[in-house]
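Run log // design_07
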């Protein structure tokens, strides 16, 4: 059973990652080893499970038939793992959480560090990507999002509101014309998202403020924040990020104040896993507490 599950674990990793290299990275084994394991499984199964192409590995019809059976075995193994874990009283194993890079850079690190400190056998991986995560392909075990998904077998829990303000560095403000109204923004350098790479309408801050031109643009919140911090221009920044730098000043507050929300998104099947439920509760509580703490310092 152990050997069979190990082969199915490799199969699931390739199916979800779409290739040998990313699957090997997730499994912490050499891609060549992953390839040999897939070949062996296909020989045992009597049919090719993947169609190989330069674009990656895609499931064949046989692979599609095997997928739900492999997922069922995975869930059974998770349940068995939980039984042993509950006996020890602490969380263990590996859990991967995806998040937009604002949350992933300025909130989640300290939240997850505290959880691991209390659960030393636990491994937490944070995937910071400026896009929506595909939980069906298990890109992550759960994800933080900025809006509620409308499709897929998912469970969604609102975690917390958070706030954003227009801001600039004190150095920038000292060397540029004073800003007392929205009209004064004309002529100032603006920092924001690359317009065609805004992956969620909730992130289209500058359009909401009537700004049409972005002089310094990136799909990364961290890049934008560093531009603002280093005097590159004006940008909408998370209040929870402000304490991580010195010399950043909010502009036109409270007249310009944006409120958004974080949601914890999970695959519906994971509701049966107490381990995931416990971790999700700790993450949600931790994010709420950390946002409140950081915004109070902004």
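design_07 sequence
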């Amino acid at each position: 059973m152990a050997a069979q599950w190990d082969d199915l674990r490799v199969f699931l990793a390739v199916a979800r990652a779409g290739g040998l290299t990313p699957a090997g990275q997730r499994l912490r084994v050499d891609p060549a080893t992953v390839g040999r394991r897939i070949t062996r499984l296909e020989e045992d199964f009597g049919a090719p499970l993947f169609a190989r192409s330069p674009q990656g590995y895609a499931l064949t019809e046989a692979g599609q038939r095997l997928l739900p059976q492999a997922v069922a075995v995975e869930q059974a193994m998770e349940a068995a793992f939980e039984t042993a874990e509950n006996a020890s009283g602490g969380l263990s194993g590996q859990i991967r959480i995806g998040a937009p890079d604002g949350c992933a850079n300025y909130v989640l690190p300290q939240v997850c560090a505290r959880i691991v400190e209390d659960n030393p056998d636990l491994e937490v991986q944070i995937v910071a990507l400026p896009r929506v995560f595909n939980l069906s392909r298990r890109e992550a075990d759960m994800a933080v999002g900025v809006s509620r998904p409308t499709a897929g077998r998912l469970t969604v829990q609102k975690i917390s509101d958070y706030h954003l303000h227009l801001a600039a560095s004190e150095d920038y403000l000292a060397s540029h014309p004073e800003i007392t109204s929205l009209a004064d923004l004309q002529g100032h350098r603006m920092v924001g998202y690359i317009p065609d790479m805004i992956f969620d309408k909730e992130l289209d801050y500058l359009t909401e403020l009537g700004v049409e031109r972005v002089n310094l643009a990136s799909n990364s919140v961290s890049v934008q924040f560093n531009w603002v911090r280093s005097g590159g221009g004006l940008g909408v920044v998370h209040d929870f990020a402000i304490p991580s730098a010195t010399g950043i000043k909010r502009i036109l507050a409270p007249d310009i104040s944006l409120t958004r929300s974080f949601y914890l998104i999970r695959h519906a099947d994971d509701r049966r896993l107490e381990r995931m439920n416990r971790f999700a509760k700790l993450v949600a509580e931790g994010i709420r507490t950390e946002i409140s703490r950081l915004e109070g310092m902004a």
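The chain has a mean pLDDT of 88.
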